[in-house]
């Protein structure tokens, strides 16, 4: 596994240049709380074994291959639809883990535009933007990676049409024309993809069919936001079909600068994807995916709660108020890629191979701490690493520049087989290579009368390979034994470090930190780590009655080591972080009754962490022979931690005519079991005590959706109400300012259109209460609390037309 051949073959990729410049289905509401989408979603990852409808009913029979999906034409004048066989529904129901699914129609009606948004309606999942740009932090049941920089993949694997997206930037704009999003809980990597500790999020787009059809949509909403999107399905020949999807959104920002009146949080996003399906023969096909994204919006800015005279917005600011100044945050990102999927069905099983490569380039200016005014400070000239001195009254500057180029390549192939009717086997191999080259610069006021510029120039490369096996053995007619295993090999390489420069008439007043010279290096790493790991899963699944399953599993997962690529003043803050290990115990029950009109699901779990990777906030003395202290973030590990909790969900479809209800509830008790007193070179104040709460683990969260249809002659009016609530949570350890608010949001929607589904018109409001909770907060470089605020009340309308 450590062969030079592998390393050389992947290094060839480093020579590649940087990338340059559905219908109103009332039965589908909030499948985020259920593994069952009432036959409206296509599975996006493999099950423990492909259970057919017959097996779900009898507990005995299994199909020789996964049932094929039929290409069906949309009815004339009706909404474009994709028929999904009943076995897909039962596959999710019988899978021995929690799988939460949201359909494409639900994404549209709930206005969920990117993977981060689905956390609002998926129990036990959190996602938040930790910076003004595109670097969301994901967590499932408290498992993730609390790194705001965006160069590291957390404990969650995110797949777009089967292709791993290792860096957050690859998610940008690609939630368009989506068929379903499935969130699988617990350690994954036994039947596809990379090994993960927390789970996976699988986004599947609508695939081409052999009939002409599509839709066009236009929407207008608050802050002069216009959105246009369309998808068109075109058969080219009897064996070639194509689907083109497009999305564009542009709008003014909802934040306003207290000094200049400029607006922030504006959108200017373009995304396009083309899928071409080639039918080779009756048993095999090839799917070609080409996609591109461009984002030139103006980022949101956090609020710094210092006084306006010192560059903040005051202790009790207007929720729309920021103080950024005349060098505003901006975003200039673009990227794209291509993937190829090949599927071949045999009498004994199905072979699948997916290969993809993606590039992404970004150059963003980010007002990271919300600080807009520095008396006698520095104006940043266009985001360069040098700054000009400006004496006198306060001036403005943007204090973070994210300048990087990322490339990611991955390949997964597996064979699923049903052998001797009682033994079901999946064998596969996964490999990925990703590289990111960047210059991250922090402009900060570190001493009165002076400015310190820190730049981390780095190159990071990751190689991951794995071989996995997943088996299901039918012990009796109703009892199945599950056994899975995976061997993984990973390499992590990093070459870079932070350099120091200062500007200002009095700089440096107390001496450069650690005697660093102007433009000199504070720290540097040039190293590579490699390791091998075995992970596995065993469990039992029992069919109580047809449509009702109970299961119990024990599994373990691991996440590869990481590097902290932020520009840091503390020499010890740039260091390697060891791999994370997790042992997970889970029991649960799933039931679909009354012909899928009532779906119930519940699970209890107990997670034990070893070397849990997390973000720490500490202090150090940057100047020799001085009592001056400075703050620094760094990645580190918690030797032992434990998370216990439970999830419950229910779905009622049409038990009361025309009424659908969905609801979910999650509880997390995430605690640190090994106290952390200090980190190399940093002081933790306060220290991390025994039984402290883990970051990104809200104790309680719940959501609900109600949808009611009113039929008047040939028209249907649909009324929808949705509500989501999440408890407060920590964002970093050792930072008393890094605690979010309790976040809640009430949404209403009214939709009208003919029963044929030819068109629909809707009006809606999100965050009806106009809540202004803090979704992410931290101590800024000026020592004050900085916070990102919940998006305000949003009112809009949209018109959807099917052809």
CATH homologous superfamily annotation: TonB-dependent receptor, beta-barrel domain
Question: Would you tell me the overall average pLDDT?
Answer: 81
Termini separation comes to 52 Å
Residue windows where pLDDT falls under 50 for at least 5 positions: 1-89, 373-396, 505-511
Gyration radius (Cα, Å) is 26 Å
CATH class: Mainly Beta
User: What share of the residues lie within helices?
Assistant: under 10%
The CATH topology turns out to be Maltoporin, Chain A
Number of helices: 4
Q: Strand tally, please?
A: 43
> Architecture, according to CATH?
Beta Barrel
The major sheet is characterized as: 22 strands, antiparallel, barrel
Structural class: mainly beta
- Count of distinct structural domains: 1
Strand content: over 45%
Coarse morphology: globular
GO biological process, one term: iron ion transport
Pfam family, one: Plug
Keywords: Cell outer membrane, Ion transport, Iron, Iron transport, Membrane, Receptor, Signal, TonB box, Transmembrane, Transmembrane beta strand, Transport
Protein name: TonB-dependent receptor
């Amino acid at each position: 596994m450590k062969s030079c051949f592998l390393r050389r073959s992947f290094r060839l990729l480093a020579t590649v240049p940087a990338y340059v410049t559905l219908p109103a289905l009332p039965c589908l509401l909030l499948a985020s709380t259920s593994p069952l989408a009432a036959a409206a979603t296509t599975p996006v990852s493999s099950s423990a074994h492909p259970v057919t409808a017959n097996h779900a009913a009898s507990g005995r029979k299994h199909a020789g291959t996964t049932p094929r999906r039929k290409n069906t034409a949309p009815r004339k004048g009706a909404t474009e639809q994709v028929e999904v066989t009943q076995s897909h529904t039962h596959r999710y129901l019988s899978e021995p883990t929690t799988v939460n699914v949201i359909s494409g129609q639900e994404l549209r009606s709930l206005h969920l535009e990117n993977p981060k948004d689905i956390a609002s309606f998926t129990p036990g999942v959190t996602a938040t933007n930790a910076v003004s740009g595109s670097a969301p932090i994901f967590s499932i049941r408290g498992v993730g990676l609390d790194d705001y920089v965006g160069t590291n993949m957390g404990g969650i694997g995110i797949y777009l049409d089967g292709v791993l997206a290792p860096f957050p930037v690859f998610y940008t704009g690609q939630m368009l024309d989506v068929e379903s999003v499935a969130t699988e809980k617990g350690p994954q990597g036994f039947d596809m993809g990379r090994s993960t500790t927390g789970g996976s999020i699988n986004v599947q787009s609508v695939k081409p069919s052999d009939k002409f059809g599509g839709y066009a949509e236009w929407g207008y909403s608050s802050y002069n936001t216009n959105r246009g999107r369309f998808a068109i399905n075109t058969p080219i020949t009897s064996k070639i079909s194509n689907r083109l999807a497009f999305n564009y959104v542009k709008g003014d920002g909802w934040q306003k600068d207290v000094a200049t009146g400029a607006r922030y949080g504006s959108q200017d996003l373009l995304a396009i994807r083309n899928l071409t399906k080639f039918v080779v023969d009756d048993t095999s096909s090839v799917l070609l995916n080409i996609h591109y994204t461009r984002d030139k919006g103006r980022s949101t800015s956090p609020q710094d709660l210092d006084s306006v005279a010192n560059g903040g917005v005051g202790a009790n600011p207007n929720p729309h108020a920021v103080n950024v100044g005349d060098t505003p945050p901006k975003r200039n990102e673009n990227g794209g890629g291509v993937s190829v999927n090949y599927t071949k069905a045999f009498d004994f099983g199905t072979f699948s191979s997916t290969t993809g490569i993606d590039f992404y380039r970004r150059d963003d200016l980010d007002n990271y701490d919300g600080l807009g005014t520095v008396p006698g400070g520095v104006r940043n000239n266009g985001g360069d690493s040098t700054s000009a001195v400006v004496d006198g009254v306060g001036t403005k500057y943007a204090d973070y520049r994210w300048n990087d180029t990322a490339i990611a390549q991955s390949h997964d192939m597996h064979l699923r087989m049903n052998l001797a009717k009682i033994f079901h086997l999946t064998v596969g191999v996964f490999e990925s290579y990703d590289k990111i080259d960047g210059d991250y610069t922090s402009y900060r006021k570190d001493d009165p009368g002076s400015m310190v510029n820190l730049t981390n120039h780095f190159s990071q490369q990751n190689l991951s390979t794995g071989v996995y096996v997943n088996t299901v053995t039918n012990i009796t007619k109703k009892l199945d034994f599950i056994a899975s295993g995976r061997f993984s090999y990973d390499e992590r390489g990093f070459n870079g470090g932070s350099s120091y420069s200062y500007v200002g008439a009095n700089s440096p007043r107390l001496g450069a930190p650690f005697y660093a010279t102007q433009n000199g290096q504070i720290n540097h790493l040039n190293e590579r780590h490699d390791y091998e790991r075995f992970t596995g899963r065993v469990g039992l699944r029992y069919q109580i009655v047809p449509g009702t399953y109970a299961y119990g599993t024990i599994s373990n997962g691991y996440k590869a080591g990481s590097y902290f690529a932020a520009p840091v003043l503390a020499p010890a803050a740039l260091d390697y972080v060891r791999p994370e290990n997790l042992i997970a115990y889970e029991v649960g029950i799933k039931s679909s009754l009354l012909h899928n009109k009532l779906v119930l699901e519940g699970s209890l779990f107990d997670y034990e962490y070893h070397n849990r990777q997390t973000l720490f906030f500490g202090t150090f003395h940057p100047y020799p022979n001085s009592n001056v202290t400075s703050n620094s973030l760094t990645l580190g590990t918690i030797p032992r931690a434990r998370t216990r909790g439970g999830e419950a969900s229910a779905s009622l479809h049409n038990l009361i005519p025309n009424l659908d209800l969905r609801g979910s509830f999650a509880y997390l008790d995430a605690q640190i079991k090994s106290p952390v007193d200090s980190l190399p070179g940093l002081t933790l104040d306060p220290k991390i005590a025994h039984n402290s709460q883990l970051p990104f683990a809200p104790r309680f969260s719940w959501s609900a959706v109600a949808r009611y249809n009113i039929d008047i002659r040939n028209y249907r009016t649909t009324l929808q109400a949705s509500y989501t609530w999440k408890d407060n949570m920590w964002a970093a350890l050792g930072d008393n300012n890094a605690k979010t608010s309790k976040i809640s949001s009430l949404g209403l929607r009214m939709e009208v259109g003919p029963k044929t589904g030819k068109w629909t018109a809707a009006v809606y409001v999100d965050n009806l209460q106009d809540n202004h909770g803090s979704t992410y907060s931290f101590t800024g470089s000026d020592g004050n609390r900085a916070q990102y605020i919940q998006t305000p009340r949003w009112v809009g309308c949209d018109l959807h037309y099917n052809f």
